[in-house]
Design goal:
The chain contains 14 helices and 11 strands. It has helices at about 10-20, 45-50, 70-85, 100-105, 130-140, 150-155, 160-165, 170-175, 180-195, 210-240, 245-250, 255-280, 295-310, 330-350, and strands at about 25, 30, 60-65, 90, 115, 120-125, 205, 285-290, 315-320, 355-360, 365. Strand 1 (about 25) and strand 2 form a beta hairpin. By secondary structure, the chain is of the alpha/beta class. It folds into 2 domains: about 10-130 and about 185-210 and about 275-365, 3-Layer(aba) Sandwich (Rossmann fold); about 130-180 and about 215-275, no CATH class. Bound molecules: adenosine-5'-triphosphate.
Length: about 375
């Protein structure tokens, strides 16, 4: 974010000339969903060129405070990628979906839906995290039965109740920890992207849930890895030591064994999600924010937490900035002062990130 008043007026005029209705994220320009059928903009920039270059698959995670414009930016970025020749998939894992509204198409079926307009294939998908949670519960239930506590009892683990209590196995499986639904949703997408049928996608965008979920999601794989790892080790010990368990883990592969296998699979998937978030070669997390004190503070916390978790963050979008005006009303004048203060705060807090300022009224860039 260069000096002066963030290069504001100069950039605004230049981008206005380039493409009315375009949105800039980072230092590149793309279109809001409402104008997705408009041709590719004549003007591109180095930042977007970098994002668009290469045919290797790349993942972009858009996250931030609730309501700041994550979905709008995810949809716009997806259109821009597709218009630049990348078969693109945009996925919403936010429980409060609005991707359907952004594309004015029904995406609620949990299946990939083609989005009309862009030059290359663009598909969108809304994943219902509640469904993922149900699937997970299914894993911990035997034959539609009574849940993991009974499952563990049936394994003859009553004598180890204290240890199990410490591991919080029952809580873990019957009341999944926050963030699990979203992590499962992401892992589900990763799974089907491995298949030949979906190998064409070279850009994948995740419109994630608000900050709190993202942070919980990031710490979850470690937690699950440790918990499930302990559980599995414990099971192994017991299975070799007690005759009661021999009947449970016998030749005939009882349902419990199947459940343990699923737990192992779950752990693998969580590790896969953790690695995806931290893979600097293929993944980038883009923080979306708005110029209010609360949003900026939350973004700063998110940025710090992501760094702590070794998640690569290079770009920040400041959405919903007031456009320049020679005659502000009292309300706008006040709002503008707040915006300027917030932008300076961002400048100092997030100085090392590429920052885009997006107009509140018309989605035009006001500066970078
Ligand atoms: N640049 C913009 N100019 C005007 N309105 C905008 C802009 N960006 C987003 N909005 C509006 O703000 C509202 C919230 O946007 P959006 O749904 O994209 O946010 P979100 O961060 O994904 O929300 P949630 O956290 O609820 O998922 C929507 O009504 C959207 O149309």
């Amino acid at each position: 974010m260069p000096g002066g008043e963030f290069g504001r007026e100069k950039k605004c005029r230049s981008f206005t000339r380039a493409r009315a209705g375009g949105v800039v994220v980072g230092d590149f320009l793309f279109f809001p969903p409402a104008v997705r059928s408009v041709a590719t903009p004549a003007e591109t920039s180095a930042g977007f060129d970098e994002m668009v270059s290469g045919t290797k698959r790349k993942y972009y995670m858009l996250g931030g405070k609730g309501g700041v414009g994550k979905t709008s930016c995810a949809a716009s970025l997806a259109v821009k990628f597709a218009n630049s020749g990348h078969p693109t998939l945009v996925v919403s894992t936010d429980p409060a979906h609005s991707l359907s509204d952004s594309f004015a198409q029904d995406l609620t079926g949990g299946l990939l839906v083609p989005v009309e307009g862009p030059g290359s294939p663009l598909f969108a998908l809304e994943i219902n995290p509640e469904k993922a949670r149900e699937d997970f519960r299914g894993m911990s239930q035997k034959n539609g039965g009574t849940g993991v506590k009974d499952f563990m009892d049936s394994m003859g683990l009553g004598m180890l109740a204290e240890q199990l209590g410490e591991l919080k196995l029952g809580e873990l499986l019957d009341t999944p920890p926050p963030g699990l639904d979203e992590a499962l949703a992401i892992s589900k997408v990763m799974q089907f992207l491995e298949s030949q049928e979906y190998s064409m996608f070279t850009r994948i965008i995740f419109d994630t849930a608000p900050t709190g979920h993202t942070l919980r999601l990031l710490s979850l794989p470690d937690f699950l890895d440790a918990s499930i790892g302990k559980i599995l080790k414990l099971r192994q010990k017991i299975s070799s030591a007690t005759s009661a368990l021999k009947s449970v883990f016998g030749q005939e592969q009882p349902p419990q064994q199947d459940a343990v296998g699923k737990l192992e699979k779950l752990r693998e998937r969580m590790v896969q999600v953790r690695e995806l978030f931290r893979d600097t070669d293929s993944t980038e997390f883009v923080i979306v924010t708005i110029p209010t004190v609360m949003a900026i503070n939350e973004s700063a916390r998110l940025s710090a937490s992501l760094k702590k978790e070794n998640v690569p963050v290079k770009k920040l979008v400041v959405n919903q900035i007031l456009p320049p005006s020679a005659s502000d009303c009292k309300f706008c004048a006040m709002k503008r002062k707040v915006h300027v203060c917030c932008l300076w705060a961002i400048f100092f807090k997030q100085g090392e990130l590429t920052t885009a300022l997006v107009c509140y009224k018309c989605n035009l860039v006001l500066g970078t």
